[in-house]
Design a protein that fits this description.
39% helix, 289 residues, alpha/beta, 8-stranded mixed β-sheet
Amino acid sequence: MRAAYPDLSGHVIRDGVALGYEVFGDGDPTVLLMPTWTLVHSRFWKMQVAYLARHFRVITYDGPGNGRSDRVTDPARYDLSSYVADAVAVLDACGAERAVVAGLSLGAAYSVGLAAFHPDRVLGLVLIGPSLPLVPPLPERAAHLEARFEPHVPNPDGWEKYNVSYWHENYRDFAEFFFSRCFGEPHSTKPIEDCVGWALETTPDVLEAEARKPLWPGDPAELVAGVGCPVLVIHGTDDRVQPFATAVEAARLGEGTLLAMEGSGHIPNVRDPVTVNLAMRAFIERLVA
C-alpha cells in the first residue's frame, strides 16, 4: 500500500526509451522530483510525495534502467545531457512549463544540469546529499574509485565492492553494502531493505552502463555557479557516501542556503522526512510568495 497514488501516470518516449512518470496533486507550483542513481527508482521519494502533493503538483519519473522505464545498456544514454533531455520531455508530457526541481545524490547533478541548460524551466533547486565533483571524495572511497573497472580483489571488503566485476558476481551483496553506507543512522533496517529490493529490480548490466557514462560536459563548478535560480542544499553531517564539504561548496557556488542535518546520512529525506519536507515546503512557498 502506498501513502499516495498518482492522479495521472504514463510513459513518454524519448530517444527510443520509454520513461514512466507519475503526477500527484494539482497545486501550484509544480515540483519535479528527479531520478537518482539507477540503483533505485522513483519510489525513494515516497516520504515526500504524499506530503508535498497536499500543497503542490508533484511529478516523479524513473530514469532509464529501473522502475517503470526501459532497461538500457548504452552508456551514452546515461550522460548528463540525456538526463536533462529526459526531464524536459517529462515536463512537456505533463504540461509543466516550469518547476521547482529536487534531486538526491546523482539526481542533484542532473538537477543542476537542467537548471544550467534550461533556466527557463526551473524556478528553484533543492539539492539533497549532492553528488557533485566539487571537492575530493571521501578518502575511504577515493582509494577504490580508479580501480572500479578492473577485476575486483579477492574477498572484497567495504568500498572494494564498488567494482563492476563484483557487481556482476555478487550484486545483492554490493547493494546491501552500499545502502548500509547510505543509512548510517540507527534503526535503518527498513529503508535498507526497501532500497536493496528496488536495486534488485534492475541488473548489473544497467549499472555498468551508467558507470561508464560521460557525465560532465564542462567544469562542474562553473555549472553550479551559473545556476541563476534560488538554491537549497540539504546534507547530512554523517554522510558516508558524499563529503559534507560538497554541500558547503555547492551552496557557496550557487549562492544558496545550506541546511545541515546533524547526524543524518546520505538519504535524509527517508530517515528524517519531516525535517526535509518542511524545509522543501518553506523553500517552495518563498519562491512563489
